[in-house]
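Supplementary Text 2. Reproducibility record for the structural model of the 116-residue chain.

All settings were left at their defaults, and a single model was retained for analysis rather than an ensemble. We include the record here because the model underlies the residue-level annotations in Supplementary Table 4.
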Amino acid sequence: MYYADGAIYNGQWFKDQRHGVGRLINPENGHYYEGSFRHDKKCGLARYFHLTTGQIQEGVWCDDEPQVTLIFDDLKRRDKAPRKTEFQIPQLTMLKSPQQVYLERAHEVMETVKNS
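Retained model, structure tokens:
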């Protein structure tokens, strides 16, 4: 689907709404969302590719908004990004891993999404 504002959606539909898995490309900067849609909104597990900085945001969306996500450098794209971040995102040393915290919170949000 090509939208009047230049956005492009390629994915699954249900009753004339984006519903299922798809990709939505932002016409202003080429950034794109790949993941789940529900009732024409970003909803569920997904990745958002920030092409200008060379980073990927991965997590759970609900009603078009990210609820719990991790952002990391896309090493394949970072060096070619027009406005890459000055410093790479460092690895964290913590008592509880960020992935563990993310997974716990993502599970809570996914339960909310399923029940909505």
